[in-house]
Amino acid sequence: MKDSLREILDHERARYEEFKNLNLKLDMSRGKPSKEQLDLSNGLFDCLTSKTNFVGAQDYRNYGLLDGIPEAKKLFAEVCNISDKEIMVLGNSSLNIMYDNLQRAMQFGVNGGVPFNKQGKLKWLCPVPGYDRHFAITELFGFEMVNIPMTEDGPDMDMVEKLVAEDESVKGIWCVPKFSNPQGVVYSDETVRRFAALKPKARDFRIYWDNAYMVHAFREDIELLNLLNEAKKCDNADIVYMFGSTSKITFAGGGISFFMASEANINYIKNLMSLQTIGNDKLNQYAHVLFFKTAENIVSHMEKHAALMKPKFDAVMEILNKELNGYATWIEPKGGYFVSVDLAPGTAKRTVELAKEAGVIFTGAGATYPYKKDPADSNLRIAPSFPPINELITAMEVFCCAAKIAYCEKNLA
Amino acid sequence: MKDSLREILDHERARYEEFKNLNLKLDMSRGKPSKEQLDLSNGLFDCLTSKTNFVGAQDYRNYGLLDGIPEAKKLFAEVCNISDKEIMVLGNSSLNIMYDNLQRAMQFGVNGGVPFNKQGKLKWLCPVPGYDRHFAITELFGFEMVNIPMTEDGPDMDMVEKLVAEDESVKGIWCVPKFSNPQGVVYSDETVRRFAALKPKARDFRIYWDNAYMVHAFREDIELLNLLNEAKKCDNADIVYMFGSTSKITFAGGGISFFMASEANINYIKNLMSLQTIGNDKLNQYAHVLFFKTAENIVSHMEKHAALMKPKFDAVMEILNKELNGYATWIEPKGGYFVSVDLAPGTAKRTVELAKEAGVIFTGAGATYPYKKDPADSNLRIAPSFPPINELITAMEVFCCAAKIAYCEKNLA
Questions:
Q1: Tens digit of pLDDT at every position of chain A (413 positions)
Q2: Taking the C-alpha atoms of B240, B246, B252 and B257 in order, what is their torsion angle to the nearest 10 degrees?
Q3: Do A77 and A84 form a contact (C-beta atoms < 8 A)?
Q4: Strands B87-89 and B257-261, sheet pairing
Q5: Is the pTM of this model over 0.90?
């Protein structure tokens, strides 16, 4: 056994030296759209010209409409299957909306509740592996983050229900319910219904439902139940904050975002938000409306994204299947931006380190866990979208080579 | 005397009835640019097309560049006469930057200091009359707002220096240093130098310098000393936060904003801001850069605004001079968006009420003071920019008529 491992190690080390000689400089660390994906939306820049009629509900070039222009609310309410009274269309960053909502809860409380700042040490539930930028926000605000294991149906709901029902200091949970970051899991109907029916001990508990990849299938689509609508059936609508954006539909560097919630939640938030800004950029909202026109057009637009994404994910799957069987496990995603790989425990950091030395940057080991601490040092996130496919293939070969070296080193030690 | 007042009252009441019969519906309440002003920037929409090269420091359609694109930083640093290391170019709302800075100070403290939330009852200096949206923010965060009388050179600096030097609970001051809202006062060189040399007892004291009208002269321009540069001379650079936007240069509904401060301040803020958003809309920043190209072009662009604004302010001045001499006092502004009128004490509310009954909405009495409380019930803000000039003239006639009625009623009571 050891002999065969040593053979593999020697072989991979030789291969690793060859990779190093290529002087690679590849960055696989972030889920950024590729140039070709961005090109798909260039027509948006032709939608507004000096000849455009800018007057809809008002002159969109002027102040006003804190919660977005009616046309944009209508369009994205339809995409999201909710009423246009339950949506605000805002600036370019849904992360910013999440952050601001949590900061408002810290400072002013949730819908008239005691400010989180005045409630002592609080807890936040974090399905793992998950999105590093989510965890960074709750870490910044001083929450004790509680890891909730992910299953193929979503977070472990037995654990979620128990913690939420028993512990008043649990104030929220981060969810990426469709094509989750990084695993690509779509929450099952049962999971969504159990979220909708949660009976939290804390009245100011909220589900932060970051539906970043709601129209981002690249294989056959999997429908996600609408949490807000399910929660209404349980007379529980206020428990839900839903977020979305066009960052990965049009432009990561200049899309629009939306916030969806019950009218009670929206009214409370709008009231506070009215002191923060007079309104967001309505002209970019208008450009998006003129570009897409209908919800159907967004669907067909996303098919073009899918056609660019699928070959990249296929390539990643092919290489993983060829090289890492027995060394690692992974889920084949049907949409979203990531592949999550579970390596042998104790080898993730070393794998990233080796890849980096060979010129390929992956998202840091641990990044998918709160406090950047993966207790097993096992999970890594692969972001296939940005690089051209030939670079992606090289980067994945380096990844597999590094993972195998780390595996052998660990087992020979 | 009373007889003559009664005669005036009868005369004005008759005139007032005639105004009422016109069924007016005019809104003079907010400082919004007019349609003609907005039209001046329509060329901006032709700057980005599907054929544009979007790659500058990076592909601006993608994620990145939290503090703005280099071209925009360079352009507005030049306009503001500072280094491009001292500027961040952000989203569409400078009010949002101010709010977020104060919220960050509440939650996390200023540059490593104790969070304002943990320092007990704090105070904020508010030059009066001033901008209602500023006061609303410090009211929301629970500051005790201290009125600082405005002089024709800016805030009463004896009072500012004394309060800031003696009282550690004084954490900031709102300033609109050029063409102040609502009086149109430009802070004198001496005032700016005294601000620059402030020696606050509180190390976390900051001057919130909202330079909203920095290029907004409509008569001969008056130069404002650059506070950051003056503060540097006093080794006091960290005391300054400066804000600006193109809301009244290009589009109130979709401009860009900037934050200017010492590198130490910017680094501290950028670090926290990196958890709030990945970046603001870079494409609108890029459109602004392509539209203006140079700082000189911004100056000539603003001359076109001035040509539209001057006749409106002239009309307001003419009517005030004709009708309200002896009833009120005012300052003739050389730029900015407002005219501030001091009526006879105890008549401002009644004037606004009468105008409203005749179909003309003015900014509420008291709005120019913290807590919406003008102790003298005297100051009103007129916003001449938005309405067409014929409507403006009618609105001003209603205003004067209402003010005279209120004056006579008060003095006959």
A1: 678 999 999 999 999 999 999 999 999 988 899 999 999 999 999 999 999 999 999 999 999 999 999 999 999 999 999 999 999 999 999 999 999 999 999 999 999 999 999 999 999 999 999 999 999 999 999 999 999 999 999 999 999 999 999 999 999 999 999 999 999 999 999 999 999 999 999 999 999 999 999 999 999 999 999 999 999 999 999 999 999 999 999 999 999 999 999 999 999 999 999 999 999 999 999 999 999 999 999 999 999 999 999 999 999 999 999 999 999 999 999 999 999 999 999 999 999 999 999 999 999 999 999 999 999 999 999 999 999 999 999 999 999 999 999 999 999 98
A2: -50
A3: yes
A4: antiparallel
A5: yes
What is chain A's Cα-based Rg? 22
Asked if A63's CB is within 8 angstroms of B253's CB, the reply is yes
Q: How many CA atoms lie within 13 A of B316 on its CB side?
A: 26
Alpha-carbon distance of B331 to B324, in angstroms, equals 13
Interface of B with A in 242-261 (CB under 8 A): 247, 251-254
The DSSP line for A63-130 is S--TT--HHHHHHHHHHHTS-TTSEEE-SS-HHHHHHHHHHHHHHH-STTS--GGGS-S-EEEEEES-
**Cα A365 to Cα A370: distance, rounded to the nearest angstrom:** 12
Q: How far, in Å, CA of B326 to CA of A403, rounded?
A: 86
Q: How many CB atoms lie within 10 A of CB B324?
A: 19
Q: Catalogue all structural domains in chain A, each as residue range(s) with its CATH number.
A: 2-30+300-412 (3.90.1150.10), 49-293 (3.40.640.10)
**C-alpha closest to that of A62 among B76, B357, B32, B275:** B32
Interface subset of B 94-153, CB within 8 angstroms of A: 95-96, 99-100, 103, 106-107, 117, 133, 136-137, 140-141
DSSP 8-state code for residue B321? H
Three-state secondary structure call for residue A381: strand
Binary contact (A276, B95; C-beta < 8 A): yes
* Other C-beta atoms lying within 10 Å of the C-beta of residue A199: 11
List the beta bridge partners of residue A175. Answer: A209
Contact between chains at A93 and B277 (C-beta distance less than 8 A): yes
CA dihedral sign, ordered A374, A375, A378, A379? negative
Q: Where are the beta strands (DSSP E) in B41-136?
A: 87-89, 123-128
Residues pairing with B257 in the sheet: B245
Measured CA to CA in angstroms, residue B282 lies from A42, B256, B298 at distances of: 14, 9, 19
Which residue type does A189 have?
Answer: D
Which chain A residues contact residue B282 at CB under 8 A? 253-254
Say how many CB pairs under 8 Å bridge A and B.
156
In degrees and rounded to multiples of 5, residue B322 shows phi and psi of -70, -40
Judged by DSSP in three states, A209 sits in strand
Of the candidates A271, A268, A272, the residue with the CA atom closest to the CA atom of residue A111: A268
Q: Bridge-partner residues for B155, per DSSP?
A: B150
- Tokens for A320? 């993983």
CB A288 within 8 A of CB A44: yes
Strands A240-245 and A257-261: antiparallel
